Amino acid sequence: MRRSVMALTVSAAVGIGSLFGGIQTEASTLSNLQNQKQEIQSERNNVNTNIQEADKEIKRLQGEQQKVNAEIKRLDFAISDTNEKIRVKEQDIKDTQMEIQKLQGEIKVLQERIAQRNELLKDRARNFQENGGMVSYIDVLMGATSFSDFVDRANAVATFMEADKEILEQHQADKDELEKKQKQVESELASLKKMLADLEVMKKQLASQRSEKDKLMKELVEQEQEEHDHKMELAEEEAILSSQEAAMAKAIELEKVRIAEEAERARKEAAARAAAEAAAAAKAAAAKASATTNSNSGGSSSSHSSSTPAPTPSAPVAKPVVTAGNFMKPTTGVNTSGFGARWGTFHYGVDWANRSANVPVVAAASGVVSNSYYSSSYGNVIFIAHSINGQTYTTVYAHLDSRSVGTGSVVSKGQFIGYMGNTGHSTGKHLHFELHKGGWNQSKSNAVNPFAYGVPR
């Protein structure tokens, strides 16, 4: 799944004067925090605009999907129609094959009749040849013994001649019919071949249509999934920026309180100094007057008076000892992976591993927790925003087993924030730590090598 945590202009919730490391002027610190809050608001507005554009794109794609669905329905109908045509043609082929078989039977009968007539004609020819050629029908008639015999012989001759004529005509008709039947069979065979060819074309068209449908369905599913993921990312980004803005507002309020307390402390110190100066002046005047009186009285004794200096304000309670520098090592363990190219990709942080149970993870510097949540890739993750010497930084603590601070919490350098773990996209128990000079963003363009910024190995 693509990274779901978005562009945090997380300058957010950064730097509260002395709490965040580096002493800054009150006005510049508050102004810096307010500027950073405006940047977050601007980024959040951009994200909301992107969400609106994503909604428009989703609606557009849904419209396209409706068109695709309509096209798929059309293809389904075409496929169904093609299947019906194939069924009809297959039946036509079967019918044609049966007709061909029938014609072949009729042709066989005709061939047998022709063969029989050929034999009859051959017999007649042999008889003619044996009788010395063509029979003389005149001799037959003249051989009559009576008139009635003559009539009988004439009728017999006429019948004989008519029979021969019919045999010849039928023989020719059967030959013509045979040729016609043969042409018909050839035509039927040609039609059958064409039907088979049409059937093959239709089958190919059907396969092509099915392939097109599968392709359209695949594209539809992919587009829907991509847009779903994109909208989820935007929604998560907006939520992160919202928490950043809230943390920033809290940082501004804390800074205002600090400024007010600092002003009150300065006012009290000024009042105390003025009172002390007035008391010292009164005391000096009294001493001078007393010296004048003693001189006038001629007394030899003098009283010795010494003033006790005003007590120095006590130093603030010391914080737990942490390593020097802007950032400390956030956990204990062995450095297993550095910043830079790794396994064909780029590693935007550093890793420490420790097999011990309940390995604590602490804030590398003081700041405000800009986000604390569970990410599909980072697992349990904490983002902390810092303002050090006027520069905004963001540290990331990923794959935690558990988190002990929530979004908006103010943390001190070295403060416990969770335990090392193996959550999210992780292949073993370790802490993945990132340092960004500025806010965190999806492309991680602000990521820097923590070791180059003083983080101990």
Automatic annotation (TrEMBL):
Biased composition (Low complexity): 292-309
GO MF entry, a single one: metalloendopeptidase activity
A UniProt-annotated Pfam family: Peptidase_M23
UniProt region (Disordered), positions on chain: 292-318
SUPFAM superfamilies the UniProt entry points to: Duplicated hybrid motif
Entry keyword set: Coiled coil, Signal
CDD domains: M23_peptidase (cd12797)
M23ase beta-sheet core domain: residues covered: 346-440
Coiled-coil ranges (or none): 23-131, 161-280
Domain Peptidoglycan hydrolase PcsB coiled-coil, chain residue ranges per copy: 107-181
Name of this protein: Peptidase M23
Organism the protein comes from: Neobacillus notoginsengisoli
